Each structure stands twice: as structure tokens, then as C-alpha cells.
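Good morning,

Both structures are done.
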Amino acid sequence: MPGQEIPLLSVDLAQNPTRERAVATRNRVRLLEAARQILDEVGPESMSMDAVANAAGVGKGTLFRRFGSRTGLLLALLDHEEHIEQQAFMFGPPPLGPDAPPLTRLIAFGRARLAFLERHLDLARATTADADAWHKAPPTMLVRTHIP
């Protein structure tokens, strides 16, 4: 319903309803920023978890506790970008938002998804290495829900 706040789906703990400690929030931000910087420099194939932890100034254990795996970290990065897309098609103006006619909206959604994947192709491709995690990731589930 327009104007109604619907919680966005997220793989990232910080965007879920449970509260986190300030240090955990700070570490999450540091880790995501470090991972984004390393990805921009060397790409996902060459990104190591050691490099991310070192760049963020945290231990490797903190990184694995936070994201579970390399794929978990990559999914969290992709998830962050997904939230912007979710806002547009869930609450935005036509032609992508809910007030557009269904066919117009579906075409706009397809174009937006293709543009999103083009911008984040390396990251999306790297997250599909774990097909089970990819198919169960909230952003993927939301897209499948949006297009029945």
C-alpha cells in the first residue's frame, strides 16, 4: 500500500530489526567499505578475506563471524546496493513504482534489473558461486516475489 512502511529484506544483520552493539556496527561499516575498495581495485576473484580484515583493521575472525563466508560478505555488499533498487520499485514513482500500470511497471522493472546487473555484474557473478546462498538470499527472493 503506498505510503505504508514495509521492512526491506536483507542478508545484513545491521538492517534487521535486532539491535547491534556500536562496535559491531562500526566493524560492519569498516568491513563493507574495505571490501568495496578492494573489489574496485582487484575485482572479486582476487579479493582475499585476509586483505579485507586487514584493510578494515579487524581480525579475520570478526569478518567470518559477521558474514559467515566470502560469499556472505559479497552478498552483503550486493544487498546494500539492492536496497536502493527495492525502494524504487516498492515505493517510487511510476513507471517503476506501484502506481504505474502493471505492464509499464514490469517493463521498467526489467530495465532497472538489467541496468543494476550491468553495474554490479562482477559482484553478482561472484555471489552465484554458492548457488544455494544465491537462491535463498533475500534480494533474490524479493525479485522472484515481485515477478510471480
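Second structure follows.
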Amino acid sequence: MFEILDRQTTLTGNQKKIITAAVIGDALEFFDYFLIGFVLAFIIGPWKLTFGQSAIVLLSSGVGAILGAYIWGWLADRIGRRKVFIGTVLNFSLATGLLYFTPENGWIYLTIMRFFVGFGVGGLYCVDLPLVQEFVPSSKRGWVGGLVTCVIPLGVGLGAVLGAMMGAGEWRLLFAIGVLPSAVVLLVRLWVPESPHWLVRQGRFEEARRSLAWALQVKPESLPLPTRESAPEPVKASWGELFKYPRSLLVSWLGNAGAQTGVYGVVLWAPSLFVLLLKVTPQEAAKMMILLTVMGFFGRIAFSFLSEWIGRRNSGGLLGFGAGVLIILAGYNYDAMLLGVSAFWLILAAAMFFADGGFAIVGPYAAEVWPSHLRTTGMGSAYGFGGIGKIIGPAGLAVIVGSSNFLKPDVPLPQIPQAFLYLGCWFLMAGVVYYFFGLETRGKSIEQIDRELAAA
């Protein structure tokens, strides 16, 4: 049955609907997640926040994402992709809506609610990519998976545009708008059935055939029905089984940790650093972020196709080495000008082509390197472990520049180069892991990857 899927050369309308649902979900998901970066630029002055307090607000969602990725990812292997997809969208949408009620100077309330936003976001990211991958042929899995991630910078960009339009006292409206992702639940209910791969592993062969027939837009009777003899034995996912695949563990965990530490440290702090270092208003800082998100968007498109042209390992190496060098270069030029324009801003924009664009590899690849029965559990564990980066990225920068410093324009920050050296080295580590230790999955079917992992 799945051999028929892999022989497919063009996508059907229903497969495109599956991709569309995931694309919308990812864009709005990360719109919610990164809103805090723009909100922080508005409140750091009036609330007199220190680097330490601001870092706690930023990293709280990272703590939530770690737990959410592990728990939701495990549940998706146990109860199915579709149910978990719906649950995670409701989770982060409602938590974001509650942020509208943040009291004045309520940075602790902000921290608690951001934890629950992260819990949902961590889960959704770990289920929508595998769900899409399990409905498309192997020859298109790389660029389709990358395409789903391409819209994440657009979600950040939407936050930047809205942040630029908001007045100083209107930042709560950003959180009210963040409730919109709950509409994605309706799209999923209308469009997307359960993954046929997951159904086969549960022994629900007739449902699997109907699901795949819907995706291929053919009659179920035209597809061969899997049998007990041909189907894999039903296996209940468990975290302990992850350690039977040490290379998958190494590549997906450390690759995620390096990329997430670097990108979250930069993106969550960038609006506030523009206000601090370049003496611009929060609205102007939000406008400056638009260029970074546009570069990330084009980077993700490029890496989506690179994953099929030069392979996952080479693309991952390019992500790490390209982003690492440029992030370090930006830090050492934080006070330089280039033709009357901030070199810090321009170099960061170039860095985002690799740093953000490379996530077209990070997410899809973290699902590909695990066997079918552990796909979302493994990806969730990798994203959860990498979620440590959401903590040590923002917190690391705060510690290096002095966590007790107040975020205000007259604070001298000679430690900025060291802070960006710290973030850049995490990207370089990811590049080494992907390039030298990665498993090449380009062009291989899910069943072929399963066999190779079982034989390793």
C-alpha cells in the first residue's frame, strides 16, 4: 500500500490540504510564541525590568516547550497524530488569550502563562511535521517538511508588523489576536484524517487504507489491504526505547540543542537589543525585525530544496557553520555602521538566512532519523532536549552582559561580543554534529529507514 504512495510523482488536492493545515498551524503557533519578544520591548522601560527578570519571562516558555514536546510527542505515538494536533492548538491558543489579562508590572503572571504557551507550542511542532511526512511520498518528504516550516518566520513577521503598529499602551492586543490559532482546529477536523502509518501500526488496516485513499483521492478498494503478516507488530512507544538508537539520539538531540540555543537567544532578545544598542523606539525595533524574518523565510525555502539537492547532512552542516560565523561577526560589530546603517542589524539579517532558514532541516530531519513507532516520541524528545536552548540561549546572554543590569539605553554593554560568541558557538556545534555524525535520509522511504535503523 505504501509502495503505491512512494511511486506518486505529483501531490493530490487532499495532500495539499494536509500541508496547508500544517502550514497555517505553524505560522500562527510561532506568532504566539515570539510575541513576547515584541511585548518585552514595550514593557522593559515602564516596568523597570532587569536583564535577569526579562530572561525569566523569555525562558519560561522554553521550560514549557521541553515538557510539552516530551508529553505531547509521546501521546501522539500512543493515541494518534490528529487528536494531539487539535489538543496542542487549543493549548497554546487559550494560554495566549489569557495573557491579555496581564496586570501592570505583572511579570510573574506573564512568566507563568508563557510556560503554558510553550507547553502547547512544543507539542504541536512535534506532531504536525510527522503527520505531513506520513502522507507524502519519500521523494517529496524533505522539501514538503521544509515547506511546512517556511511559514514560521512569517508568523514572527506578523508579530513584527503588528508590533510596529501598536501604541505603547496597546501591547495586550497582541495577545488577544493570538487566540486566532484555535480556528486551525476546525481546519484539521474538516480536512485531515489520522496518519495511515500510525493506523497500520495499531493493526487498524481498513482505516489506514481509507485514510491513504483519501489522501491519494482514489477508491479504498483500489489499494491493497495490509495484512497481519506484512504489517509491523504493534509496539507501544516508550522513552526508554529511544536509547536503543544512539546515533539518532546524538544527531537529533545535539542538533536541536545547538540550533535552538542560538536562534532563540538571538530572536527573543533582538527587539530589546535594537532598542538598547541602536537607541530606537520599540515600534522602530519591530520594523527592523521584519528584515530578519524575511531573510529567515527565504532561508527556509532555500534549505527546503537543499535538503533534496545536497542531502540532509550537508544542509545541516551549512546551517550550523553559516549561522555560527555570522552571529559571531554580528556581535563583534554591534556598534559599527555600514554606509550609515547599523552593521549589527545587517549582519544579523544575513545570519538569519542560515540560523532561521536552517530549521527547514532541523525539524523534519529530527523526525526522519527515528523508526516509525518512535517518530513523534523521538522528535518530541529531540525538540524537548533542544528546548534547553530556549532557556540557556536567552539566559546565557543575560548572564554574560550582567543579569542585574537594567534594560535602558544608557547602560554600556561591552560584553555583547562575548554574548554573541557564546550563541554562535552553539550553531557551530550543531554544524559539526549534522555534518560528521548525521544519518543521510534523502530519498529513502519510511520503511527503508526503519530497516536500516533496525539493522544498525
